[in-house]
Amino acid sequence: MIVYGIPNCDTTQKAIAWLKKRKINFAFHNYREAGITAVKLNEWSKLAGWEKILNKKSTTWRSLAPEQQAAVTSQKAAVQVMLSHHSIIKRPVIEYNNKIVTGYNDALYQQEFK
């Protein structure tokens, strides 16, 4: 299991605390420092849809010019924006068993991470 996120993100911290409390082993990937590849973003997009990976509620999204926002109409465009602005990626993204879970959701975690 790999948890992708930013360490000072409240949602990422909640997810990590949830996993640690249940003694679930994971590796942490800080994509602000270690980066993220287009290959990985495309992989996630195929698993969950780019709309679920791109966080349109984020401050970063809201800070983009309206024309930049309007141009994000495809996976290719979304991946380019996420490569340029890592903090626009939904947090956390948890990879496990060839699946991903985005964000923090206690009920979903209980169902998925048995």
Characterization of the model:
By secondary structure, this protein is α+β, with helices and mostly antiparallel strands. It has one domain (2-112): Glutaredoxin, CATH 3.40.30. Helices cover 47% and strands 14% of the residues. A 4-stranded mixed beta sheet has the order 2-1-3-4, with helices on one face. It starts with a strand and ends with a helix. 25% of the residues are buried.
* Oligomer status: single chain
Can you write the helix and strand succession as a string? EHEHHHHHEEH
User: Strand order within the widest sheet?
Assistant: 2-1-3-4
- By CATH, the superfamily comes out as Glutaredoxin
Q: Any idea what the CATH architecture is?
A: 3-Layer(aba) Sandwich
Question: Terminal Cα separation, in Å?
Answer: 13 Å
Shape: globular
Brief account:
The protein is of the alpha+beta class. The chain has seven helices and four strands; from the N terminus they run βαβαααααββα. It has a four-stranded mixed β-sheet, covered by helices on one side.
Characteristics of this structure?
single chain; 4 strands; 114 residues; alpha+beta; Glutaredoxin; four-stranded mixed beta sheet
SSE layout and pairing:
Elements: E1 2-5, H1 10-21, E2 27-30, H2 38-48, H3 50-53, H4 59-63, H5 66-70, H6 75-84, E3 93-96, E4 99-102, H7 106-112
Parallel strand pairs: 1-2
Antiparallel strand pairs: 1-3, 3-4
